[in-house]
Each structure stands twice: as C-alpha cells, then as structure tokens.
Specification:
With 339 residues, this protein is mainly α. The protein is built from 13 helices and 2 strands.
Length: 339
C-alpha cells in the first residue's frame, strides 16, 4: 500500500471519528425540541456538555490532515464549498453559544429561544455536512485547473439533499441511542420508544440513497463492478448492524446499541470511501478534471514526514478522547453547575 492510499484512509478515519463523535451532538440538537420539560432538556444538554467541544477536535484534525496530505484537494474543496463551510462554521458557533447562554438567565422564553437556536444550528450543521458528502459522490463542475465553476446553489441537487436528509436521520438515531445511555427513568423509557421512529427513518432514507447512488452515478457502478465483494460485504454489514440495534434496544442493552449505531456510521463512511477511491473530488460533467490521490497529493517526502507526525499525534487524540469519555461516564446528574 503506497503513502497516497494510506493518507486517503487516514483522512477518512479522522473524518469518520468526527462523524461518530459529533454526530450524536448534532443529533441531540435535532431531538431537543421534541422534549417540552426544561429539566429533560437540561439533561440532554448536559449529556453532551462535557464532550461536544472535544468531539470537534476530530474535524479540525481531519481538515489539517487533508491540508497536509492533499493540498490541491483542500484548496478546491474549501474554495468551492466556501459558502457552505461558512454556514457550517456559523452553525457550530451558534450551537456553542446556545449551550453556554441558555443557562445564564432563568426566564422560560430566554431558554426556549436558545434551545431553538441550538436545534436550528445542529440541524443546519448536519444537513450541510451531508450536502458536502453528497457533492463529492455526485461530482462538482471543475475546470482543467481544478477550480470550482459554480456557486452555493450548484451544490443543492436532489441527490445531495437526499444524502443530507439521510445524514440527519443517522445522527438523530445515533443521538437517540446515546441519550438512552445517559438517562434513566421515564425519560429513558420515552427515548426507547423514539427508536421506533428514528431507526426506521434512517433505514428508509439509507435504502433510497443507495438506490439513487447506484442508478444515477456511473462512477459508483464502475466501483461496484471492480470492488463488488468488498462493497457488497460492507453494505451487508451496515444493514445487519442497523437492524441489530432494534433487537438490542428491546433487550435494554443500550451500550451495545450505541456501539452498533457507531458501526453504522463507520460502515457508511467506508461505503463512501470505497465508492469514490481513488478520487477525492470527482469532476462532473468532465471526469478528466477530477482530483485523486495522485494529482491532489503532496510530494512523497511530505507524505512520509506527515505520516510520522500522524503516528505520534493520532494516538494522543485517541487517548484524550478516551480519557474524557471515561471521566464523564455514567448517567447525567443535574447540579447547580449544570447547563
């Protein structure tokens, strides 16, 4: 395996880590407005409170790895998706502000306003991430110099919106299962009932998205033909893991259900990587202008040096993440210092 492929996998691992960890943060925002009681909303916020900002480290690390390993891809994506990324940044900022500000004043309207901001920012962030991923699969118009030829509305196609909705449903399911781990009593029983909606919603959208991808994207059909055993195996595992969540919830094995949900995200990202490899930014309707792991990469000495840095740095991020989750394990208990 060459360094270009290794870095393709490594960037994918970092972005997958972000999707798994920040996914339930974003999904919590999508679910919070379905809870009317202020105490229950506080439990939701304090379930993610100790970890949400640490989860976003994975996004920063993934972006840094993309810049170091594939600078041409970084330049094309961040310039082409500039408007979308600015909206995503605004959503992340307002989400953080909403978490911090809602508890600064006891008024019901004040808290309801910031809860709405948190929900809108979280849903917007999830949808924008899905739009970006959908466009990488569908393809974007690039000229021979790999510069994006379009605007924000160029990115909004029926297919990319379907991918965005699928991602939102996945994050909502993931958050539903995470909150089951962090709650107890009547709220936990209510959340267990919600899985009868969040899991089927994701499965339906997942099926529609995969059907649309295979039918509409010749690049993916080519990948299926050349890597059918691998992609087929990942797809079967993904569906089996997700269906297994229902059985685990019925048996009140919420920890394993959450792990299975994380597995659903991992396998979905694996399907995405297997479908686009060796491309990173697919050009449509001019495939010859695509950026791949060769023409979008840094020099071999740079990739080698950064690989050494990654060997040192990634375990540190993993250790930090594991330690935070270990310290803040267990059920949420509200105190005077809670959000």
């Amino acid at each position: 395996m060459d360094l270009n492929t290794i870095w393709f996998i490594l960037v994918g691992v970092l972005l997958t880590g972000y999707a798994v960890l920040d996914g339930f943060d974003l999904g919590t925002g999508a679910l919070i407005l379905f809870v009317k009681d202020d105490t229950d909303r506080r439990i939701f916020l304090n379930a993610i409170g100790p970890v949400w900002n640490g989860n976003e480290v994975w996004l920063v690390t993934g972006g840094g790895a993309l810049f170091a390993a594939f600078p041409n891809v970084y330049a094309t994506v961040f310039s082409g998706f500039y408007d979308a990324f600015m909206l995503l940044l605004a959503a992340l900022i307002f989400r953080a502000a909403a978490i911090e500000f809602r508890g600064q004043y006891p008024g019901a309207r004040w808290r309801a306003m910031w809860d709405t901001v948190f929900a809108v920012a979280s849903v917007s962030g999830a949808l924008l991430i899905g739009v970006a991923i959908g466009n990488l699969v569908w393809g974007i118009p690039l000229d021979p110099h790999h510069e994006f030829r379009g605007d924000f509305f160029t990115l909004l196609k029926p297919y990319t919106l379907l991918v965005a909705l699928t991602g939102l449903a996945l994050f909502a399911m993931h958050a539903n299962l995470y909150l089951l781990l962090k709650t107890e009593g009547a709220l936990q029983r209510r959340l267990a009932g919600w899985t009868k909606r969040t899991i089927p919603a994701y499965l339906v959208l997942f099926a529609l998205m995969n059907a649309a991808t295979v039918i509409a994207r010749p690049m993916v059909r080519d990948a299926l033909q050349s890597r059918l055993p691998l992609i087929g195996a990942i797809f079967i595992v993904s569906v089996a893991i997700t269906f297994n969540i229902v059985r685990l919830v019925q048996r009140a094995r919420y920890g394993l259900a959450f792990i299975s949900s994380a597995g659903s995200i991992v396998t979905l990202m694996m399907l995405f990587g297997a479908a686009i490899y060796p491309n990173l930014v697919f050009s449509w309707p001019e495939p010859a202008n695509s950026l791949n792991i060769v023409n979008g990469a840094s020099t071999q000495p740079s990739l080698k040096f950064m690989f050494i840095v990654a060997i040192i740095g990634v375990p540190i991020v993993l250790a930090y993440t594991a330690s935070i989750y270990y310290v803040f394990r267990g059920k949420v208990t509200l105190t005077d210092h809670s959000y």
